[in-house]
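Exam revision sheet. Question 4 asks you to relate a sequence to its structure. Input first:
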Amino acid sequence: MPPEDVEQWRAEEAGLIDLLARTRQRLGGVAAFRIGPRPTVLVTDPDAVQHVLGRHPERYVKRSHRARMLAGDGVLSAAGEPWKRQRRILQAQFTGTGMHRYEHRIAAAARRTADRWAAHARTGATLDIGDEMRHFALDTIWRALTGHPLDEVTERELDRVPAVVAALPQLPDGAQAPEAVAGDLARIDAVAHAAIAAARRREDGPDGPGVLRVLLDAAERHPEYTDRLIRDELVTLLVAGHETTATTLTWLFLLLDAAPDARERALAAGPEGSPERREAVQALVSETLRLYPSAWILPRHALTADTLAGHRVEAGTDLLVCPYLTHRDPRLWPDPERFDPTRFLTDGARPAHLGAYFPFGLGARACLGTRFALRESTALLELLLPACTVDFRSIPSGATYGITVRPDGPTPAVLTAVR
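Answer key, structure tokens:
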């Protein structure tokens, strides 16, 4: 599969996503090209996505991770046997019956934000929707990790997380932390180590112990769980557990601003608390994730030679699996740029192929917190959507493609209480 040289295209394009979209358009759903010194294959075809992520994760591995300078050797960045062990320890916390222990914590964080919004609606004050969603998502994951609601001091110390995330590269390159964010990383480290020390002293919050206690218990059985690794796991869960959810919810409110009928249809689906209402609200989240997936690009590295969709992939090849482009493929999703939550409510309106929709990844390395993220998003929206309407004072002009896809500007808005 000879790669096509795209250096000239690269110089002409505004960024990586434009290069990848052009490559897909010219070369198809499995496209070989060069980006830097190594051959690269862009993967957007659903069968090829399933082959790489779902069927053969042992052949196509993470060579590094963009978030390593922040998350260290946490489960997001780990590989091989360490990753298997770390995932096994954490998996029960966020799947199946393990999720039940977080329901009341999610509900408490959602109610706290709903109360804030009610106060904003009474005063008519301008707030930033992105900031509000970060506050909610950070409060929720902090309760899950520590058992404590988010306090003002912790929130203030962690308010630099978005700046560090924004500094992460689009693709893994082994880069060290830029000097500009070294101070921010130190603040995040201080919060993590203070939380670890408090959990070790068994200073549980009103909700009891959190995931941090699970990590400390693991250290008693597994000597490799040093304070450094516990810090890495804590920061991984803290960042991955709030940054992506906050971004998804911010996009959702922006999309509803352009398509207000979608909000009305969701609320009309059934009375408050009904399964019909919840399903309709979940569809809003699912469609937002189609347009702006939590993991918009998934780099992989071919350990061995393979045949992918009829093409030879040599060992040492880098692959870029791109949910963002798969989710916007008109052959899979009619009118793909349109925000249409009914795709997830109507039988046959979305592709049946597993590799056509994977906003949290796919296969063995899919996001551990998928169910947690979906549940917290739905719980919040079930409270906010019936209570307030959102009037944006300005709208971001586009998106920024880093480790997540973020709105490229502030999101100031005024809330109006629904009578």
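Marking note for examiners. Residues 48 and 309 are 6 Å apart (CA to CA).
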